[in-house]
Design a protein that fits this description.
Elements: E1 2-7, E2 13-19, H1 21-24, H2 30-44, H3 103-119, E3 123-126, H4 136-145, E4 152-156, H5 161-167, E5 173-177, H6 183-188, E6 191-195, H7 196-206
Parallel strand pairs: 1-3, 3-6, 4-5, 4-6
Antiparallel strand pairs: 1-2
Helix pairs in contact: 2-3, 4-5
Length: 207
Amino acid sequence: MTQLDVYQQTGTKNGTTEVKAEVFGIEPNNHVVADAVIMQQASLRRGTHAVKNRSAVRGGGRKPWRQKGTGRARQGSIRAPQWRGGGVVFGPTPRSYAYKLPRKVARLALKSVLSQKIADQEMIIVDSLDFDKPSTKTFKQLLDKLEAKGRTLVVVESGNDNAILSARNIDKVKAITVENVNVLDVINNQQMIVTQKALAKIEEALG
């Protein structure tokens, strides 16, 4: 088991908590992490590229000249690829670049980046993030009290909408529910702020 400090919203220390070493204390597998990052980046591609082939280009329905007797090469349409204004051969068509890694590989990648965050002391555990209503000002004050600097990923339990809405308009801060924790977000943010309830859910899912 690994022990982590727990803080209140006021920024004061509120004891410690134990986390599973098999989730937050493994030796990071950089190769698997790289595979997960490439997979996520590929899945983010829109894949809307498209060109018109000869069947999609307007016109060219009539044979330009008769088959024999003209001395010229036979042609069936002025929209064939060799003609100016003709269709494109083997051009890109809309497609999805998304694919999935094996479940064990994806879990190992996530455990690797979380363990690295713990090793680098870039994860802050808070007992809770309770807001009566969405408040960007209050959330900014919270970040200052916790001394969270740079790009920050905030992970809260499902249903904590006020915390997510409070962080939404703050520059370099991204708030997500624990179900949406992913390798790319963990890597792209220098600091992580995680509630104890969200921490327990991560352990339950990856333990």
